[in-house]
Request: fold
Amino acid sequence: VPARLFSTFGLASWAIGLVWSSSTVAYAIATPLSGMAMKRVGPHTTISLGALLVAGSLPTLALPSKGQEWAMVLGLVGMGIGMGFVDGSAPPFLTSYVESKGWANRVSMVISIADASLSIGYIIGPVLGGLIQVHAGYLWAFSTWGICIAVSTAAFFLFGKFQRQSETKITRVSIGLAASPAPHGRMSLSASPAAQEKVDIELHSQAQNPHETNTQSPMVAVKVASDSGQNGSPTSPTNLDFGNHGKFAAIGKVNFDSDSSFYTALYQALLAEGWTDAALPASSLYLGDGRKKSKFPWEQLENLCFCGQKIFVNSFLNFGCITLKSKLVRTLRQHFQGNSLSQMPAWVPLTYVVYPEHAGRQQQRLTERDKLVEEHNKDPSQVWIAKGSAGAKGDGCVISEGIEGVLREIDQAEAKTAWVVQSYLRQPLLYQGRKFDIRHWVLLLWDGTVMELTDGVLRTCSKMYTEGNWEDEIIHLSNHAIQEHSEDFGKMEEGNEVSFSTFNDWLVSQGHGSGAWQSALDAINGCCVECLQAGWSNMLPRPGMLCFQLFGFDFLLDQGLHPVLLEINGSPACRELLLPHAVRSVIDDVLRLSDPPA
Reply:
């Protein structure tokens, strides 16, 4: 390039340096901007776009004639931006690639080899370019440059692209809370695509002393006696305190910034055991609100782990792929049939993602409005329920026997975000004549272990169930935030909650058999594992980041006791009676590790 600026344009040395500096200034600006691009599209795409930008700038370097110096400047700016994107994205890409291969301790070596290779290219490139220019002219020199970039970019795109996949298996471990010893189960589901459809469940009963801690197991199952009170409302069990089941190998430091009742209780219990407050990077545990992604210090945490520090984090990056309603639909579709609407498992209701008509073009390309209308026309008597993708606690739900009312409500919404429209289960299993849903809590760990609370709750409605009256939320939506507005709230069960053990006794009294509820619970657990497996590749933590997160799965049961998934909550409230036990389990089975695995 400097040679052409001299021979073709006759520029002086200082002018050549000034023109060339446009490229270096563009490079300096583009390198940090590449970080913003990586957050949106990833390092692989950023590198590819940068290389294509360099290649696209070459004609403006090869074709201009005297008097068109501005074109040369434009080409150098484009080249600088492209190289900045490539150089700024290469180290994170190489780091992720090396980690995905299980070579986390070889990151520095691989990056050094890459830098050495780049240096060799900078040595050979000018010599080769000069020889081609002397014998064939500038056009051929620049053309050869473009060919080299095109070939290397194509090779990088075809062979360098990879998807982070984990050899870790999702493993389920039960934490018993029932009065009788609960079966401890292990459910493993291979992360490889070939084995995604096969779930191997091995259940075996194991009686344990309810006050004995199993120190040989990686998990501690603490049994707490629980008796049922009148009308199925549980009475306060004994020994429900945080307690101290041993000493930490090393007292840690915690950084707390969350309004979750569960993580607040965990924070208070840790302080009672001697933990102290400390800001990053001094803390060994960060408790934040993963829903506020912009305020969660993911970048700082990743940098700490990259430098070799291990830290517990109460959230997974990108867990919204299973907790945001529209993203959960897409995640499950990709997991089962590659984005197909058909042949989803029976526990996923027929679902469509619909955007308001006033949403932008991009959203309208993703909307499934026409498919929804087509499905409804097959059976106009179908009942549909629409939920805002980011809504919670039943807020904004619409139930309608006709599709017109649902679409009208969606189009009148101010936000342009997606809505999920699902077929409504018109004949659910009823508890004493009222509709209910099941809240099942599980804790996902960084290594794929799922700790499940074997005692959850049924959340009941305050009015008897009848078909019709679709606008009456008290009949159809069992969320506490809705039921609390009913004058009958808490009259039939304390807090409109029924324990699993009480529900099991009721099922037996209704003639369902002693093992009916355990079979339904096993099916629910299988659904939970499938959902977590579907999102696992998006949530994989960086080595050294010991993530754990409590999820609340909500289900309905049909009259055959088959589960139907409603939604997944990424920061659920935990039942007050179960809260101390759940906190105790996290402390004993997650944080009390003398040498936590990377």
Confidence is low (pLDDT under 50) at residues 161-169, 174-250, 594-598.
